[in-house]
Backbone:
């Protein structure tokens, strides 16, 4: 299986500041950074409030041998953002079948809650979000990136 698990931080308006901080303090390399303004250009259905143009909808940072992802939004929208609803694990692979298999395995447990069904969207041929029986939120992404 060719997949990886990446910690995903949801920072509720502080993502750009955190990225800059991690670049300065930890030597993070920004592999990808998509602002709300960038996403609105890619996807006309993407809307944001005035003043949020520089907010981050998705980013990938390399710190040493590991990666983290940072954005603004909580992944479990059934709960208000708070410390504790600011973290998820992102399972990603370039192989669509791998992501479908992992998603199906996790959602086969009746205690798993599907928050966003696995489907294609403007940035992936397969993306979904679930909360497992232990409260851990998992994102599933078919990625086009090779980093």
Residues:
């Amino acid at each position: 299986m060719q997949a990886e698990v990446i910690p995903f931080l949801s920072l509720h308006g502080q993502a750009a500041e955190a990225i800059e901080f991690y670049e300065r303090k930890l030597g993070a390399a920004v592999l990808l950074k998509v602002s709300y303004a960038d996403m609105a250009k890619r996807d006309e259905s993407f809307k944001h409030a005035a003043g949020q143009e520089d907010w981050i909808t998705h980013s990938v940072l390399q710190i040493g041998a590991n990666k983290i992802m940072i954005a603004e939004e909580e992944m479990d929208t059934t709960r208000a953002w708070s410390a504790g609803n600011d973290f998820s694990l992102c399972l990603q692979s370039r192989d669509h079948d791998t992501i479908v298999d992992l998603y199906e395995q996790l959602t086969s447990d009746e205690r798993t809650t599907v928050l966003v069904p696995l489907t294609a969207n403007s940035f992936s041929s397969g993306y979904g979000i679930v909360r497992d029986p232990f409260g851990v939120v998992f994102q599933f992404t078919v990625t086009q990136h090779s980093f």
